[in-house]
Q: What sequence folds into this?
């Protein structure tokens, strides 16, 4: 009886060892991967890393978030809401009534510009003010009517106020900060042009 039990134990142990060594001996799937595929994957990962580093570097100079931003919340909220109110007034001045109220358009454009400047200073206090490469590609000599400027401004304001930067202002991705500041600078540029054009029409 003891011999039978001992034989059974030896058979089980032998099977276990065989299973373990069998697993160890099997080549890993990754080892059989095509070296060319691995190289492509490594290059892709490296390119992505470099791209992310470039974005972080751009955000650090072009759109560095204010480290003491919480103290500026009241002003940020006031300007955030004020820009939208003034933009609505501009659209109403252009579309409502028998004639276009250019005086209101000029005044509200100036208000938006003023609020956008303060927002820029509160959100990105140490930012570089020079234009980005994408912005430099835009045609500076393009002739824009007041209607064109109002439409562009409305799109820029819409993009800015819907930015994820306001979802959680304490944790902001570099790409989000860059886009938010690009929108702000575009708003400032458009309101300057709009104000000047509206003044000419009075």
A:
């Amino acid at each position: 009886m003891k011999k039978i039990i001992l034989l059974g134990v030896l058979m089980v142990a032998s099977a276990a060892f065989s299973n373990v060594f069998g697993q160890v001996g099997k080549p890993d799937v990754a080892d059989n991967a095509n070296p060319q595929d691995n190289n492509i994957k490594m290059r892709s990962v490296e390119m992505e890393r470099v791209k992310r580093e470039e974005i972080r570097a751009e955000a650090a100079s072009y759109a560095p978030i204010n480290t003491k931003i919480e103290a500026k919340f009241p002003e940020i909220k006031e300007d955030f809401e004020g820009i939208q109110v003034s933009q609505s007034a501009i659209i109403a001045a252009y579309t409502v009534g028998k004639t276009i109220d250019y005086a209101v358009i000029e005044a509200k454009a100036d208000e938006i510009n003023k609020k956008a400047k303060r927002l820029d200073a509160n959100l990105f206090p140490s930012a570089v003010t020079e234009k980005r490469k994408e912005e430099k590609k835009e045609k500076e000599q393009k002739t824009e009517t007041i209607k064109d400027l109002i439409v562009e401004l409305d799109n820029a304001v819409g993009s800015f106020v819907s930015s994820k930067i306001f979802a959680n202002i304490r944790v902001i991705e570099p790409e989000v900060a860059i886009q938010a500041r690009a929108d702000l600078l575009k708003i400032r540029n458009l309101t300057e042009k709009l104000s000047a054009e509206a003044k000419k029409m009075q």
